[in-house]
């Protein structure tokens, strides 16, 4: 079968999904081991029977809702191709807003940055890629996810130290210029947990108590013990949580507290600056 014909067939089979054309192309490129430009440049390319059979199985799994990133085992983020697995969240484009905001606020000198709940390592590795002289550390509670972040760092040849543990526990006595995090922030009763890709992602990386604010509150309370004067805290959160997260930040002494919007115009990242060391 010619590539153009198969491409049209796959799009029809995935019709009704969120992005049938994109999903079809990503799966085609994965099976053919070719860039997307190949699909446009070589419409007459003959796809082998073995490749068609592999695609048929991937399409079947996608029709059942399995995320494309899990089918291919990878997802691009900040121009970095990352290995992904069911042990972590799938990196999403809106999280790049957090990376952009972090890069804008880091000092010109080499800095120390900590990423809490790193998952695939997407945020930490993106910062390290742009600022190779910075010391970037990542913390991850799930040992399988921590191992995945280390593999991504090694494959990308980026010097990232990954410590396994819960939030600040592996950071005793350490201070830094910036703390970033995409923590769990979804309420356990949120109906969206039964929809889309999140059905296949670990609940421990999605759900938090206190209407989704428990982990964000913990981070904001403990961050001042690890931030240098003038350091920044940035966290990703749900689109309806901006005002609540701002209150958490200001209640814990942060200044210049601001909520930034994602590419869809929704509240997504709140940040604040620590003015000085917290007194006992």
Describe the structure in brief:
The protein is α/β, with parallel strands linked by helices.
Query: Within the largest sheet, what's the order of strands?
Result: 5-4-3-6-7-9-8
Secondary-structure arrangement, i.e. CATH architecture of the largest domain: 3-Layer(aba) Sandwich
Query: What ranges have pLDDT less than 50 throughout 5 or more consecutive residues?
Result: none
CATH topology type of the largest domain: Rossmann fold
Termini separation: 71 Å
List the helices and strands in order.
Answer: HHHHHEEHEHEHEEHHEHEE
Q: For the CA atoms, what is the radius of gyration?
A: 21 Å
Give the CATH H-level superfamily of the largest domain.
Vaccinia Virus protein VP39
How much helicity do the residues have? 25-40%
Shape: elongated
Estimate nothing, just give the exact number of structural domains: 2
Please give the number of β-strands: 9
User: How many helical elements?
Assistant: 11
Beta percentage is 15-25%
Largest sheet: 7 strands, mixed
Mean pLDDT: 89
Briefly note the structural class of the backbone: alpha/beta
Protein name: Release factor glutamine methyltransferase
Binding site for S-adenosyl-L-methionine: 117-121, 140, 167, 182
Domain Release factor glutamine methyltransferase N-terminal: 5-73
EC number: 2.1.1.297
Task: Write up this protein.
The protein is α/β, with parallel strands linked by helices. The protein folds into 2 domains: 3-64, Helicase, Ruva Protein, domain 3, CATH 1.10.8; 74-273, Rossmann fold (3-Layer(aba) Sandwich). 38% of the residues lie in helices and 19% in strands. It contains 11 helices and 9 strands. It has helices spanning 3-13, 20-32, 36-41, 49-63, 68-72, 96-105, 122-130, 143-156, 209-212, 214-222, 242-251; strands at residues 74-77, 80-83, 112-116, 135-140, 161-164, 176-181, 227-236, 255-261, 267-273. The strands form 2 sheets. Strands 5-4-3-6-7-9-8 form a 7-stranded mixed sheet, sandwiched between helices. Strands 1-2 form a two-stranded antiparallel ribbon. A hairpin with a 2-residue loop joins strand 1 and strand 2 (80-83). Helix 1 (3-13) packs across helix 2. It is elongated, with a radius of gyration of 21 Å. The model has no long low-confidence stretch (mean pLDDT 89).
């Amino acid at each position: 079968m010619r590539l153009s014909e198969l491409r049209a067939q796959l799009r029809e089979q995935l019709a009704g999904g969120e992005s049938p054309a994109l999903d079809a192309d990503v799966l085609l490129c994965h099976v053919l081991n070719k860039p997307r430009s190949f699909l446009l440049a070589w419409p007459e390319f003959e796809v082998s029977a073995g490749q068609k059979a592999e695609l048929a199985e991937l399409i079947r799994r996608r029709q059942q809702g399995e995320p494309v990133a899990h089918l291919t085992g990878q997802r691009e983020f900040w121009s970095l191709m990352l290995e992904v697995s069911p042990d972590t969240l799938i990196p999403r484009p809106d999280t790049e807003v957090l990376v952009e905001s972090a890069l804008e606020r880091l000092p010109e000198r080499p800095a120390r940055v900590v990423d809490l709940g790193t998952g695939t390592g997407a945020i930490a590795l993106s910062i390290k890629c742009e600022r190779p002289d910075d010391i970037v550390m990542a913390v991850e509670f799930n040992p399988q996810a921590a191992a995945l972040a280390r593999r991504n760092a090694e494959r990308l040849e980026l010097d990232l130290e990954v410590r396994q543990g819960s939030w600040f526990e592996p950071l005793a006595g350490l201070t830094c210029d910036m703390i970033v995090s995409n923590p769990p922030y979804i309420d356990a009763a949120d109906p969206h947990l039964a929809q889309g890709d999140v059905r296949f992602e670990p609940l421990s990386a999605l759900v938090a108590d206190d209407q989704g604010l428990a982990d964000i509150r913990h981070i904001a309370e403990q961050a001042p013990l690890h931030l240098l004067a003038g350091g920044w805290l940035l966290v990703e959160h749900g689109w309806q949580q901006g005002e609540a997260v701002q209150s958490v930040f200001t209640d814990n002494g942060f200044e210049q507290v601001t909520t930034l919007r994602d590419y869809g115009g929704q509240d997504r990242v709140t940040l604040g600056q620590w003015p000085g060391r917290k007194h006992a």
